[in-house]
Design a protein that fits this description.
The complex is a heterodimer.
Chain A (H helix, E strand, L loop, with lengths): L2 H28 L4 H4 L2 E15 L3 E7 L6 E9 L4 E6 L4 E7 L3 E14 L2 E2 L31 H11 L5 H14 L1 E2 L8 H7 L1 E2 L1 H14 L4 E8 L3 E3 L3 E8 L2 E6 L4 E2 L1 E2 L3 E6 L5 E3 L6 E11 L4 H7 L5 H9 L4 H24 L8 H8 L5 H25 L3 H22 L16 H21 L1 H22 L2 H9 L3 H13 L6 H6 L1 H4 E2 L3
Parallel strand pairs in A: 8-9
Antiparallel strand pairs in A: 1-6, 1-18, 2-5, 2-17, 3-6, 4-5, 7-15, 10-12, 10-16, 11-18, 12-13, 13-14
Helix pairs in contact in A: 1-16, 3-6, 4-6, 5-6, 9-10, 9-14, 9-15, 9-16, 10-13, 10-14, 11-12, 11-13, 12-13, 13-14
Chain B lengths: L1 E2 L1 H6 L3 H12 L5 H5 L1 H10 L7 E5 L5 H8 L4 E6 L9 E7 L2 E3 L5 E3 H13 L11 E4 L6 H4 L8 E7 L2 E9 L15 E5 L9 E3 L2 E3 L17 H14 L4 E9 L3 E8 L5 H6 L4 H4 L7
Antiparallel strand pairs in B: 2-7, 3-4, 3-7, 4-5, 5-6, 8-9, 8-13, 9-10, 10-11, 11-12, 13-14
The chains are: A alpha+beta, B alpha+beta.
Chain lengths: 532, 292
Amino acid sequence: MTWSRKKIINLLIISLMTIMTVIIILKVSVFNYTFNSIIPKSGYRVHTWMTFTGNGDDLIARTYLPINGKRQTVSNEQIVSPEMEFRRNISTLHSSGEWTRYKADGPLRVDIYYDVRISPIIYEIDPLLTIEQNKDESLDQYLVETEFIQVNDPFIKDLALVLAGDDIYLLSVLNSFYKHVYDMGSRPFKGTTDAVTAAKLGEASCNGKSRLFISLTRQLGIPSRLVGGLILNNGSKKTSHQWIEVFISGHWVPFDTLNGHFASLPQNYLSLYRGDEALFRHSRNIAFDYRFDIRKKTISNDRLTSYLGERSFNIYNIFAAFFNINISFHILQFLLVIPLGVLVVTIFRNVIGLNTFGTFLPALMAMSIQSTGLIPGLLVFFFVIILTVVVRYPLEKLGLLHTPKLAIMMIVVIFSLLAIALLSNLPFLEFIPSLNSASLFPIAILTITSERFALTLSEEGTKKTSIIMIQTLIVMTFCYIVISSIALQALMISFPELLLAVISMNLWLGSWTGIRIIELFRFRSLFIERIK
Amino acid sequence: MKFTHTGLKDIIGLNKRNLEVIYVHNKRTHFPIVDNKITTKEYLKKGDIPCPETICVISNFFEIEKSLELLLSYDTFVVKPSRGRAGGGILLLERVNEKSWQTPSGKSISEEDLRKHFGDILFGVYSFGSSGDAVLVEKRIYPHSVFTDIYSDGVADIRIITFKKEPVMAMVRLPTDKSDGKANLHQGAIGIPVHIDSGLTGNAMIKGRKIETHPDSGAQLQGSSIPFWSQIIDMAVQSAELIPLGYLGIDFVIDKNLGPLILELNARPGLQIQVINEKGLAPLIFEGNNDI
């Protein structure tokens, strides 16, 4: 490469990168773009299911549905209960869903899905804060005695005296109560335990401990309440959880005396209701069963579009023009990360030195499995490859000319794929990944892959072709990871000028003459001497 | 184990080869001259440079029958796709009876098989997706004893790399059972470096590993010299002058009766020759300054 050409390329790279940096700095400092509002956060997808069997009478079931709060954002909610009437009740404290079926007979099912992002929180309580009498009438309900929170029971009164004495400082009182209840033994959740029982037994489950704590704090006139919800971890569970909130200086501060959180909560505590309630309520004798299936996932910030729309110097308004011709935001977001996927291919070919079918086929393959996901997508490609080999064998024996032979193979592959798409809708074959959404493009790509595979088989033989196929699948996997990253999609749509960096990288790679990593291995005898 | 730092600098990898050698010295418009064996032979003929004798050329389907008839009078011949690469589609046939032949590995080929093979070649199966190809049928080569004494099957060849009309590196490629009689290093043939000035051979290698005897015949592989070497070098220089490509790979065979013949030329010769010669190409191509 002559000097002038290299200089021009370097100049181009510097200019593009400078323009990009300027725009980004402008957006962040002047036009108020913050990464925190753009980047998706890790959250959870919760699937709750309830099953019942009707006995001929009316059947009603209720459970609490999460609502947005200071610490939690709920999105993507789906309620699937085709055979029941659904009604939502909303109050300031919580929201519940009620499902009804009149004269219910036979099995019924409700599925509830939602995504939720929760922020952890830690409160610092000023040690000099004193306990003050409550003057707010709306908080009176959080001081009363109830059936299970026996505030005025002599045992509770004595315990409070022993633990807190004449202490007037809120923090130290809370500390003593907390320590006492936390140090008590734990019992697994089994029915309702009231405060007095918990205190006398010296051990309790989460609801017993929480009630005991609250009866102590209410004894001293500190407004406190029960919170019910779920601790979210990957997996399946049936146990919900209860903890406490204490009203301090205008905030409801959380405490968990079972798992050990003092004035704080981690990022996986989902609040569902407030007050001494039951998570599920339902008619009797209906063989009620339920479960929570929880999965960690990255959740895109769904306020992103409006956030961008409010900012200056964004191309959101240009996007509006696309919306008018039915190209959705989602598709635009996807299109903007494709250059990244293509860059992945370039790096794998020119820097690492892998060899693939077709230059950008791996990127196209990655795009075509967006709706099915990675593992099912890989399975589909494996299936197509095996199908290609199987179909090719008898055709080879027939000794047909090349192009008509390929044509027959293509017809068989296409129709097999269509058959799979149909089959995947049958109930017992749900595990077959479905190709239904945007089906034509994936089928086209799968067909092309099959053709290239068959062609290379004829030209290079089985071993070489398999090696190239494996390399193609590896590159496809990395492309997929990049293209489907919600974080990258959010970044690219907020800062489309990042494409200038992608172009710059390609300019740089286009003039890079270094040794490819695979070549380092291939030529190793040239620069490594073994001392015998 | 120690690193020889100079070694790494001297190696030309694919990126460097493509960008600084091929882009600069091999214009793409000239590639078809060497990619198409029939065209190559026309060029070589102009310079009176010896190559295997052509029996016939098939460019269209309607020529197949006529060619089959012509081939009735030949007991042995080689069928090649004109635009084939890495030996794909090459068929060496010996007549068994009037309507059938067999390959060196004993596989029998009927007239029908041969017709289909011609069809495949014409369709472009072996020419990597280009829109069709032609069939080249040549007289068979009988390799010189310097090769057959070591291994009797297949045809060994000599690859010489020229740069700006000057030979810079050379190697012999010797077939093995594993390479199925083909002189293809990636398929298991033996690579033997040849000193460009003297024609003397160096340490043989199979897939990067040094060996002293042929794995199938057990014959010694060291200390020979290539016969007709100065003639081979001359032919290489002359070919490089005839073909407008600055960086060439020239493949020779030595026929026991006809002497050295040029088999084919390559506009993108592979880089494995550096491993065989235990030497990078960079100092030979980029004089002094490696950062051109």
